[in-house]
Structure formats: structure tokens, C-alpha cells
Design a protein that fits this description.
The chain is α/β, with parallel strands linked by helices. It has a single domain, classed as Alpha-Beta Complex (Maf protein), CATH 3.90.950.10. The protein contains 5 helices and 7 strands; from the N terminus they run βαβαβαββββαα.
Length: 186
């Protein structure tokens, strides 16, 4: 099975959750670029799973995830990784979100993770969300993406160990749910 990602931080997190090594797009010879042009995380995950399967013939798991902030009408949503363009860092994006949130009283946010599996016949999916709050400043310790501005029970995701983070991770819960669906249906 292949995990449809070039993001080595995500690959490492997936391997930690599954407790095994997984192939990633970096492990295959053909470079696969997928235009994530859908309106939802789930649609993007399905698109990636199908495209990678089509090019490799290998059963594929794909994920799309991101940050949704109700006070910003769900922004950045599916644009979480790219709303400032391709050459910006996680910190650049986080600083922009903090700027957009500076006058907001309600700071609720969701980390949404959607997985899709495709084996040429079956499409199986799973989605989980983690509710938290946007911090008022960035706390860069470790982690990636928006971990340094996401508070869960008043604790930054970036200050959590991988083990702590995996206890609450929507990525973990969605992936384990998908794994059960694969075992039952394929």
C-alpha cells in the first residue's frame, strides 16, 4: 500500500500511527503531481487516492486535512497549506491567521482530517475533527503545519509529544477507522 503524500512529516506521523513503514510518493520513481482543486477535504482525498492508484496500480491511501475557523467562515479550509502561495512557510501562514484572528472574540477552530482508500474497485473514506482554539501567538517548539497556533485544552499541539498528540489526533482516529473498513470490505 502507498500513502499518497510527499510530506515526510505526515508520512512519519502515519507510520507512527500504523506502527509500520509505508511507501510514500517519494519512494516511487514517477513524480506524481495532483492538483487538489476540490471544494472539500474528502473530495481532495478521494481525488489523490484515485490518481495515485491510476498511475501506480498500488492500493492507495490518501489524506487531505487542514484548519477550519468558523469566525473566518471556515477559512483556510482546503487552502490551509497553500492560501499564501507555494513559497511560504508554515510560520508565514500561521502569522497571517493570527493577524486575521486578532479582533475575533470567538477563536474556535477545527483540525479536520479526511482519508480515502482506493484499490481500483472500492472507495472507502473516514473523517474526524479535533476541536480547539486559535492561540493569540505562535509557539514554535516542534510539529508542523498549524500545530504552533492550535490550542487543545489550552495546550499547544506544538508542545505535545508525538505520543500525546496521537492520543487526540483526528488523523489517527480517521486512519484507524479507515483501516477497520479496509479489513472488513476488501
Amino acid at each position: 500500500m502507498i500513502f499518497a503524500s510527499n510530506n515526510l512529516d505526515k508520512v512519519k506521523e502515519i507510520e507512527n500511527i500504523l506502527g509500520e513503514k509505508v511507501l510514500s510518493l517519494k519512494d516511487i520513481k514517477e513524480k506524481i503531481e495532483i492538483d487538489e482543486n476540490k471544494d472539500t477535504f474528502l473530495e481532495n482525498a478521494i481525488l489523490k487516492a484515485k490518481e495515485v492508484y491510476k498511475k501506480t496500480g498500488i492500493k492507495t491511501i490518501a489524506e487531505d486535512s487542514g484548519l477550519e475557523i468558523p469566525a473566518l467562515n471556515g477559512f483556510p479550509g482546503v487552502l490551509t497549506k497553500r492560501f499564501l502561495g507555494p513559497n511560504k512557510t508554515d510560520s508565514d501562514r500561521n502569522q497571517e491567521i493570527l493577524l486575521l484572528m486578532q479582533d475575533k472574540k470567538t477563536r474556535t477552530c477545527y483540525f479536520t482530517s479526511c482519508f480515502a482508500f482506493y484499490d481500483g474497485i472500492n472507495i472507502l473514506t473516514s473523517t474526524y475533527k479535533l476541536k480547539g482554539e486559535i492561540a493569540s501567538f505562535e509557539n514554535i517548539e516542534k510539529g508542523f503545519g498549524f500545530d504552533s497556533i492550535f490550542l487543545y485544552k489550552k495546550k499547544f499541539l506544538s508542545s505535545m509529544s508525538l505520543e500525546e498528540k496521537n492520543k487526540i489526533s483526528p488523523r489517527k482516529f480517521a486512519l484507524l477507522d479507515l483501516q477497520k473498513k479496509i479489513a472488513k470490505n476488501c
